[in-house]
Write a structure and sequence with these properties.
Helix content: 55-70%
GO cellular component, one term: membrane
Keywords: Membrane, Transmembrane, Transmembrane helix, Transport
Number of helices: 20
Main location: membrane
Largest sheet: none
Subcellular location: Membrane
Protein name: Amino acid permease
CATH architecture: Up-down Bundle
CATH topology: Amino acid/polyamine transporter I
CATH class: Mainly Alpha
Number of strands: 0
Number of domains: 1
Strand content: under 5%
Amino acid sequence: MFFGRKKPLDAILATAEKKSLHRTLGAFQLTMLGIGAVIGTGIFVLTAEAAQKAGPGMMISFVIAGLVCAVAALCYAEMAAMVPVSGSAYTYSYAVMGELLAWMVGWALILEYAVAAGAVSVGWSGYVVGLIEHAFAIDIPDTLVLGPFDGGMINLPAMAIAGLVTWLLVLGTKESATVNAVLVAIKVAALCLFIVLAVPVMNMEKFTPFMPLGFGGVSAAAASIFFAYVGFDAVSTAAEETKNPQRNMPIGLIGSLAICTIFYLLVAAGVIGTVGGQPVLGPGGEALEPGSRELAAQCALISDNAVTCSKEALAWTLRQIGWPQIGNLIGLAAGLALPSVILMMMFGQTRIFFVMSRDGLLPQAFSKIHPRYNTPHVITVITGIAVALFAAFFPVGQLANISNSGTLFAFAAVSIAVMILRQTEPTRKRPFRTPALYLTAPIAVAGCAYLFWSLDEKSKLLFFVWAAIGLVVYFLYSRSRSHVGRGIVDVPETDGDVPPGPVPPLPTGL
């Protein structure tokens, strides 16, 4: 019965019109937002994590993760163009598979966005701390810049950047997008500089052995590296704030993914071909988990003289090949640019909370709009506090894997929803149609399942625990307060003079 409680697509579009966000973003801004969300911790930081799991075989891991993300992006593009409202996978699932599954998708997206923002904050901290230490020849105590799993106590810089981004998001979407465009330019320039300096001096012998831990290591690395591609989903959450979304959403989604994939492969090849990428093994030759106390101890024995030990892989690589000052510049660029990723992840999280609140599944206060800035400030501040706490105490790799578990679940749900909607509403206008849908979508679902089961056991366990908590919250709170369940469903203007819901329209201008 809960699977049958659906919100019609026409009602979703009507709700968005009556309680809407302001449309200010075009195709170029969306593509920049996508690049800003995608290129970040995945390539600046998780390169070292992937090398620890797969060695040079992480090149294959990037391809596997990119292919899964590409087929999922094609499914997302059809849904985002057809249903141009905020909420991403949550909104699509509500229309197609019912409220209970939509709630679970929205609940899983909390793992994707909030935890991911924490992971990027930790990655930013690693680069900024490394830059300060090398540029000014000082040693900052690990106690204050590393979490307890990495040998410290609390990561204060990561908490600080999460707070700064929260403040920026409260100010407004247009301002955030403008700042983001500048940061994306810095980030892309830094990666281009790295490629120019590293790729020409590659040594192909560094790629041997190519898969030191076998294909299992490649699969595990692909599951982690998937984190590097998920930013395009955050772009789809901005559909309600996009001008001409039927045209611009597919451009923003697929264009940003294609550009980022090229960068990833070139940068990864530059790292491996110059300083190598063999994993650091334990005393008995066993594989060590990235972000673990065991790896930290083993790295200390070799004076961190391996890229897999570095918290700032690209800057460390350039210093090793004779470009110390350029390495510092890369660290500076990462310090300036990674906040754009945090911004987009937190942007996506707050907009999903906004829509779930608008549907009655979360408290009404979550969709409260600031009287001056016209932004959902209450949920933005709550999200910022959660992100800061994640960043303060957990290592980047573990946060990335936990985030991936929620992301993969949501991506699979959207891929299934597209197929169902083709059958149930074949005549609905589709400005963008997923090519070879009944081949593309099943590949996306199977790819998501493969990457999910390639995650570490802790991440999978945490996902199921989080899902169980979500079910409890739904049945104790959300089920009885759902607007759809109470019969409060907006209709298009042509079907009624007054919206049946008791909630008045909110001010626009976000």
